[in-house]
Amino acid sequence: MTDLRIGIAGITGRLGSLCAEEAGTALSGGTSRHPVPEKNITSSPDELAKRSDVIIDVSNAATIAEHAKCFSQNNCAWVIGTTGLDNAAQDAIKEASTRIPVLQAANFSPALTVFLDLARQISAALPSYDAEIVETHHRQKLDAPSGTALAIGEAVAQGRGLSLKDVARTDQNGRRPDNAIGFASLRGGQVIGAHDLLLLAADEEITLSHRALDRRVFARGALHAARWLATKKPGLYSMADTLKNE
C-alpha cells in the first residue's frame, strides 16, 4: 500500500516514541493522556483512527476495549503490543478481528518469534523434561511474568498438549509438580529484555536464550507488522504470520 498512514497509540511511551521515529513520514499521529495538537498527538483514539490506515497500539491494557470498538468502527487495521490483558480484553480483540485485520504479539522481535516456534517444537520432543522460564527486565517494568515469558510458556504448553493456566507455576515454594511450567522474574537496572527457556532432565539440560540488545528491534518489528497487516483481510494474526513466505 502506498502512502500508508500509521498511527501510534501510546506514542509518548518508551516503545511508542521509537515506533514514531521509525515510521518517519508515514506517521499520522498518536494518542497520549497529554495531547500535543501541533504534533498530531491527541487523547482521542477516534480522532487518530480517522486519519490512519493502521494503528500500532503500545498503550495500556485499560484502553483495549475502547480501542477495539473505535478502530473497528473506523475500519482501521490494529497491531497490538499491549500485554497484561484480561479475558474481557481478549474477547474484545477477538470480536474486532471479525471486522478488521488485527495482529497481536507479546514481542515484535523477529528472532523471538522464531524462538517461540522452537520452544513449541523442543517441548513436544522432550515432554518429560522440566520446563523453567527465566526473564529479566529493567527495574521500571510493572508486570511479571512478562508478556513474552507468558508467550514462551504458551508455546511450551501447546507443544505438550497442555493448558498453561493449569500448569503455570510462579510460586517456587514446595515440591515441583509434574508437568509444571515454571516462571522466574528478575527486575533491575535497565535490562531491555532477556528470556531463557530451560528444559532440565536428571542427566542433561538444554537452554534456549534470547537477548534484546537495542529496543529499536521491537519498533522495527512493529512497523514491519503494520505494513504487512494493512493489506490483509479481517482476522486475528500473529508475528509468525508476517515471517511466512507468501
Automatic annotation (TrEMBL):
Catalytic activity: (S)-2,3,4,5-tetrahydrodipicolinate + NADP(+) + H2O = (2S,4S)-4-hydroxy-2,3,4,5-tetrahydrodipicolinate + NADPH + H(+); (S)-2,3,4,5-tetrahydrodipicolinate + NAD(+) + H2O = (2S,4S)-4-hydroxy-2,3,4,5-tetrahydrodipicolinate + NADH + H(+)
Pfam entry (one): DapB_C
Statement: the UniProt record of this protein carries the keyword Signal: no
One of the record's GO cellular component terms: cytosol
CDD domains given in the database record: DHDPR_N
EC number: 1.17.1.8
Annotated Dihydrodipicolinate reductase C-terminal domain residues: 113-243
Predominant subcellular localization, coarse grouping: cytoplasm
InterPro entries found in the cross-reference section: DapB_C (IPR022663), DapB_N (IPR000846), DapB_N_CS (IPR022664), DHDPR_bac (IPR023940), NAD(P)-bd_dom_sf (IPR036291)
Residues that coordinate or bind (S)-2,3,4,5-tetrahydrodipicolinate: H138, G147, T148
Location(s) in or outside the cell: Cytoplasm
Superkingdom in the source lineage: Bacteria
Domain (Dihydrodipicolinate reductase N-terminal): residue spans on this chain: 5-108
Gene3D superfamilies referenced in this protein's UniProt entry, alphabetically: Dihydrodipicolinate Reductase, domain 2, NAD(P)-binding Rossmann-like Domain
Chain residues that bind NAD(+): G10, I11, T12, G13, R14, L15, G81, T82, T83, A105, A106, N107, F108
UniProt keyword annotations, A-Z: Amino-acid biosynthesis, Cytoplasm, Diaminopimelate biosynthesis, Lysine biosynthesis, NAD, NADP, Oxidoreductase
Molecular function terms from GO: 4-hydroxy-tetrahydrodipicolinate reductase; NAD binding; NADP binding; oxidoreductase activity, acting on CH or CH2 groups, NAD or NADP as acceptor
Binding partners and assembly: Homotetramer.
HAMAP family, per the entry: DapB
NCBIfam families in the cross-refs: dapB
Protein name per Swiss-Prot or TrEMBL: 4-hydroxy-tetrahydrodipicolinate reductase
Source organism per UniProt: Neokomagataea tanensis
Gene transcribed to yield this protein: dapB
